[in-house]
Amino acid sequence: MNFLISVTDGQKQTTKKFKYSLLKALFNFIKDSVDLSLINPCDSPILRKTFKVAKGQPWTILDRDVVDEIVFIPKKIADRLREYIFSENMEDDNRVFPLGYTRAREIVKKAGKIINVNLKPHDLRRHAATYASRSGVPVEIVSKIMSKTC
């Protein structure tokens, strides 16, 4: 599978794993649809190990007493938000986004109307949970983030 190694050279390990999975699925489809005797070249222990995604850092599950709010956002956005707060010399009691639930709901509804989708804030909440789960966040943490009391 020198082809797969050369195609994924220089890419992130998650991208390599994704492309390997797609190619393996393609060969499995061909095998199931055309020729049951076909041996999937991607089905080897060495390739599985080569394209395996490394385990990330373990997640810490926090109790409700430890923090006021838990927000799951991508690292790039968190870094940019941190830089903004620092550059504006914002105090802990200041809001980064000075708007309440009602205004946020209006913004989400208006955005949905622009693209002809009946969009509600809860839809974004569900999407965030799905994104977190698919990004490898343990189910316990997604559950804590999504709990109504948290």
Quick overview:
This protein is mainly alpha-helical and 150 residues long. The chain has helices at residues 2-7, 13-33, 45-50, 75-87, 101-114, 121-134, 139-146. It is elongated, with a radius of gyration of 22 Å.
What does this structure look like?
The chain has helices spanning 2-7, 13-33, 45-50, 75-87, 101-114, 121-134, 139-146. The longest helix has 21 residues, at 13-33. With 150 residues, the chain is an all-alpha fold. Helix content is 55%, strand content 0%. The model has no long low-confidence stretch (mean pLDDT 80). Helix 6 (121-134) runs antiparallel to helix 7 (139-146). It has 7 helices and no strands. It folds into 2 domains: 2-50, no CATH class; 75-146, no CATH class.
Helices and strands, with pairings:
Layout: H1 2-7, H2 13-33, H3 45-50, H4 75-87, H5 101-114, H6 121-134, H7 139-146
Helix pairs in contact: 6-7
Strand content: under 5%
**With helices defined by DSSP (H or I, 4 residues minimum), what is the helix count?**
7
**H/E order of the elements?**
HHHHHHH
Structural class: mainly alpha
Largest sheet: none
From the N-terminal CA to the C-terminal CA, the straight-line distance is: 48 Å
- Name the assembly state: single chain
Radius of gyration: 22 Å
Helical residues, percent: 40-55%
Q: What is the averaged pLDDT score?
A: 80
Shape: elongated
Low-confidence stretches: none
Number of strands: 0
